[in-house]
Amino acid sequence: MQTRLSPLYQGTPEGQQADRVLRSCVHCGFCNATCPTYRVTGDELDGPRGRIYLMKQVFEGQTPTRTTQEHLDRCIGCRHCESTCPSGVQYHELLEVGQAVVDQQVQRPWAERLRRWGIRTVVPSRAFGPLLKLGRWLRPVLPGAVARHVPVAPPLPAGPWPDARKSVHARRVLMPQGCVQPHLRPHIDAATARVLDAIGIRAVPVTGAGCCGAIKGHLGDVEGARAQARRNIDAWWPYIQSDATVEAIIVNASGCGAWVKDYDHLLAGDPAYADKARRVVSLVKDPGELLPQWLPMLKVVMRRRVGGLGAVTFHPPCSLSHVLKLSSAAKAGPIETSLRELGFEVKLAATDSHQCCGAGGAYSLLQPEIAEPLRQAKVAALTATGTNVVVSANIGCITHLQSGTSVSVKHWIELIDESLGQGRGELGPAGGWR
User: Most buried among 67, 86, 221, 341, by the most CB within 10 A?
Assistant: First the structure.
């Protein structure tokens, strides 16, 4: 695509990044076929091709409007378009600078500014847990439009973490706990630690680390996201620098992992952190990446199980499929393959198995008119398989889907933890818990 950048953006980092991405696009429109928002609204400007044209106009000097901003806001950031694009257009890099430029020129309505400020300020903070408890307590009397955004209490207690005094394994990994997952689904982290302990790896929670920065970054506070990235690196660095037995940083929420894996890009211009960020990125792993390596030992510790472990339906989050590239519509990824090898019957959604569920971090809070129909379609496709359990790999997808169905939705690593029988009780004959 030919571009003529406005003198305002020529030679600037934003203009150079936009120009590079715009020139790689041939405007074929294949991306629209898999764009979730375009499929809901049918509006060309709610698809990647239309948004690319809107951003092209801005970087060529046209003044953006509130309508421009609204169409960019409706992008979930699933990056399905990038998996579809035959030209390899890095759409998210254009959106990153395009949204920032538009937001500098278009003021949002005060109610929207307040909502976005509240989400990016409260969710990553220590206030989130107490406010969540208050919201759950008030949920029966809250207006329906508000109550549906308050996640119900998790179905299971967290359960015990392995006793650090007994987990004297030579192998160790760092395990960030993030900001929302410890409050929404604390048993995911505990289950991950128990599974690792069972195969001889100690999960080390790091004090001083917190939110990965994705919430702030996705809501336009890039400097806030950088500050959170630096804080996390500072918390992890003493372990990385001094402990040779730390072999990975395990991030068990795929959306957070995708963001942390971009720390090198986020901090590329920071001379004090650029090298550290690259080192951190080299260590960051989604547990699904390592699951095939864990299989031999998992088979050993699970050898007492006889017969199948039951049928489950797997929902691959967009961050897992289109960013981490650990699942695709064309080929089963390491999670599906490994779960099958362990004895689970793994099914995928009846239709559009890799289509977005509408969670998108804070997207379901900011764009419910699009997120709701996407969730309804995804829940219908997932539950059509007839299984009693849906598993995923991202806390946002798990809580979003669970609020739309009575079928149990959990992290896939919980299945392995339950099958190991650690801290839960006695396994029933069908793989369920008595």
Answer: 221
Structure token digits, residue 308: 């199948």
**Cα–Cα distance for residue pair 93/16, rounded to 1 Å:** 11
DSSP state of 427: B
* Arithmetic mean of pLDDT over the chain: 91
Quick check: 425 pLDDT over 60?
A: no
Q: Output 35-40 pairs: Cβ under 8 A, ≥24 positions apart.
A: 35/80, 35/81, 36/76, 36/78, 36/80, 36/355, 36/356, 36/358, 36/370, 36/374, 37/74, 37/75, 37/76, 37/370, 40/370, 40/373, 40/374
**Angle (nearest 5°) at CA 21 between 256 and 269:** 55
Q: Look at phi and psi of residue 311 and say left if phi exceeds 0, alpha if psi is from -120 to 50, else beta.
A: beta
Give the separation between CA 224 and CA 149, rounded to whole angstroms.
25
Say if CB 204 and CB 246 are below 8 A apart: yes
Q: Per the structure block, which two tokens stand in for 284?
A: 């960051």
* Sequence-ordered strand ranges (E) for 160-235: 171-174, 201-204
Angle between helix axes 91-105 and 13-24 (nearest 10 degrees) is 130
Rounded to an integer, what distance in angstroms lies between the CA atom of residue 312 and that of residue 102?
43
Question: What does the pLDDT look like over 268-318, one tens digit per residue?
Answer: 999 999 999 999 999 999 999 999 999 999 999 887 554 568 899 999 999
Task: Report CA dihedral (186, 192, 197, 198) to the nearest 10 degrees.
Answer: 120
One-letter amino acid at 104 equals Q
> Which residues pair with residue 347 across a beta bridge?
313
> Tokens 């496709």 map to which residue?
381
Structure tokens at 1: 């695509």
